[in-house]
């Protein structure tokens, strides 16, 4: 998980929390807000846990104040999740989310104007749906994340 910054049409800045599954490449969450805190990160992780019906063993993130917060640490501890922090100044420690952020910026943020946070949230949710359901990934055999997940769930356990 990581943050991406952008601005509204009037120059007002906002942030987006991006949560991506490294295995399936599925975008699990894109949270838009002016000032996102550790509490917001923990709430998003809880929402993802409930929606996906699973808990990650490990979460890669940088050392941002939102990720080293008491709220995120508590959520990770209560859910048995290890927080794997990148070394300071080493975005290559978390290459999947960095790659995702680049695609997200190039394909959506840089080509759209956002009138308000609500407008940004609605438009970003559309991009997330398209990314998860239709965008092929070469690392997934040119399947979308959802196609890849569905294929994996149809493989008998004895073959995995």
Strand arrangement, major sheet: 1-2-3
Can you summarize the main beta sheet? 3 strands, antiparallel
Low-confidence stretches: none
> Structural class of the helix and strand makeup?
alpha+beta
List keywords for this structure.
3-stranded antiparallel beta sheet, two-stranded parallel ribbon, single chain, 40% helix, alpha+beta, 5 helices
Please tell me about this protein's structure:
This protein is of the alpha+beta class and 160 residues long. It contains five helices and five strands; from the N terminus they run E-E-E-H-E-H-E-H-H-H. Strands 1-2-3 form a three-stranded antiparallel beta sheet, with helices on both faces. Strand 4 (58-61), helix 2 and strand 5 form a beta-alpha-beta unit. Helix 1 runs parallel beside helix 2 (70-79). It is globular and about 50 Å long. The two termini are 27 Å apart. The model has no long low-confidence stretch (mean pLDDT 93).
């Amino acid at each position: 998980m990581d943050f991406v910054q952008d601005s509204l049409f009037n120059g007002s800045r906002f942030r987006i929390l991006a949560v991506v599954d490294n295995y399936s490449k599925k975008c699990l969450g894109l949270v838009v807000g002016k000032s996102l805190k550790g509490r917001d990160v923990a709430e998003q992780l809880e929402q993802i846990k409930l929606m996906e019906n699973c808990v990650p063993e490990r979460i890669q993130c940088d050392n941002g104040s939102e990720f080293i917060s008491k709220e995120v640490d508590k959520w990770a501890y209560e859910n048995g999740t290890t927080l794997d922090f990148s070394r300071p100044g080493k975005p290559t420690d978390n290459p999947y989310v960095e790659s995702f952020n680049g695609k997200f910026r190039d394909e959506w943020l840089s080509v759209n104007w956002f009138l308000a946070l609500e407008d940004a949230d609605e438009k970003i949710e559309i991009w997330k749906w398209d990314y998860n359901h239709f965008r092929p990934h070469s690392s997934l055999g040119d399947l979308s994340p959802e196609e890849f997940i569905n294929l994996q769930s149809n493989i008998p356990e004895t073959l995995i």
